[in-house]
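Example 9 (inverse folding). The structure is encoded as follows.
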């Protein structure tokens, strides 16, 4: 799914557009015991309570694609009888009215999810009558020929509120706060099936993680059986390793700067695209070519990575470079500059010492104090 498709689903989480038909909930304590359950038609909830759930649903579909939101495809064996996808499909088709399937889903979740505190599993079924689209993008509600039925699951930590004092306006006194168990925004979640090309795609799942560095790979494997991508941090480390090992001793400042300048140019070109910019292994080679990496180094790249038995892991560009800053670090100094102004920094040998030289065009401040820089 891309940004536009995710946004279209999130727009349904309002009272006017609500397509959620049924909600189930399961409150689990730190010892993995189910304390209470919820099963009812979503539209029967009080309006104020429904608004709180809408906020949770929207949060489960928030963040950066390729970082917090991961598109994952089911292996063929998971779509056969007894597979994880086949189970989720049966659960969706039941519209959450089969108590046995719901109980089995809770059992699978609780067994697989690694969390040492209390949490609340929320599972909803929704049916979205997808409107047609005119050439100008306007919705044509009378031209629908697709109903997108899906499950959205949110796993929310539950914590005890902080002790303290508060003002009670009814008694006009300061009193002790009664501590309550508070449901937080979700830490994990998923959408199944996905909404690709504005159509139902039962072959994939969209996985949400609040912390992109804590995917809970065992949980993904147990619940979905899907191959999961590298975390954002590992993607960046992988890309940096590719550059370092390809360039070797020729990994100098200018070459690395050129690579990052080229990447920022690609990001600028793709900024209006709803799809994340992704680099495959051939894309990385073309990136190096466009950045002026010598042919002999490109041969080394091919020899190193084409002989690798590991599958080609796509890299999301927003995970491997920052569109906001270009950073240079030494053991004692850190420099950050806008990616559009990397031309202000040069490497130079001054009086026999290797230096980073920063061109000054406007005023200079030291700890917030404007200072004068002597000229020649």
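The amino acid assigned to each position is listed next.
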């Amino acid at each position: 799914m891309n940004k536009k498709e995710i946004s279209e689903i999130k727009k349904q989480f309002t009272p006017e557009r609500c397509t959620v038909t049924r909600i189930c909930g399961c409150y689990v304590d730190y010892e993995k015991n189910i304390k209470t359950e919820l099963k009812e038609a979503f539209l029967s909830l009080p309006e104020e309570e429904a608004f709180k759930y809408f906020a949770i649903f929207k949060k489960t579909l928030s963040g950066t694609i390729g970082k917090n939101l991961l598109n994952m495809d089911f292996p063929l064996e998971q779509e056969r009888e007894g597979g994880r996808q086949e189970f989720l499909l049966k659960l969706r088709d039941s519209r959450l009215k089969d108590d046995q399937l719901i109980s089995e889903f809770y059992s699978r979740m609780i067994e697989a999810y690694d969390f040492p505190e209390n949490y609340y599993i929320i599972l909803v079924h929704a049916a979205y009558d997808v409107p047609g689209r005119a050439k100008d993008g306007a919705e044509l509600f009378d031209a629908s020929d697709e109903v997108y039925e899906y499950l959205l699951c949110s796993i929310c930590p539950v914590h005890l509120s902080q002790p303290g004092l508060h003002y009670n306006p009814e008694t006009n006194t300061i009193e002790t706060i009664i501590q309550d168990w508070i449901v937080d925004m979700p830490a994990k979640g998923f959408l199944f099936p996905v909404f690709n090309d504005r159509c139902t795609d039962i072959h994939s799942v969209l996985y949400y993680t609040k912390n992109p560095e804590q995917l809970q790979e065992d949980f993904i494997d147990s619940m979905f059986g899907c191959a999961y991508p590298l975390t954002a941090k590992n993607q960046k480390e992988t890309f940096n390793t590719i550059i370092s090992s390809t360039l070797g001793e020729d990994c100098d400042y200018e070459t690395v700067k050129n690579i990052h300048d080229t990447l920022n140019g690609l990001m600028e070109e793709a900024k209006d695209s709803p799809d994340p910019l992704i680099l495959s292994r051939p894309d990385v080679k073309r990136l190096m070519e466009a950045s002026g990496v010598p042919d002999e180094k490109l041969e080394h790249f091919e020899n190193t990575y084409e002989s690798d038995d590991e599958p080609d892991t796509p890299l999301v560009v927003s995970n491997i470079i920052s569109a906001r800053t270009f950073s240079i670090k030494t053991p004692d100094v850190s420099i950050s500059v806008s990616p559009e102004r990397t031309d202000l920094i040069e490497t130079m040998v001054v009086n026999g010492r290797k230096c980073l030289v920063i061109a000054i065009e406007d005023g200079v401040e030291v700890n917030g104090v404007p200072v004068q820089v002597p000229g020649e």
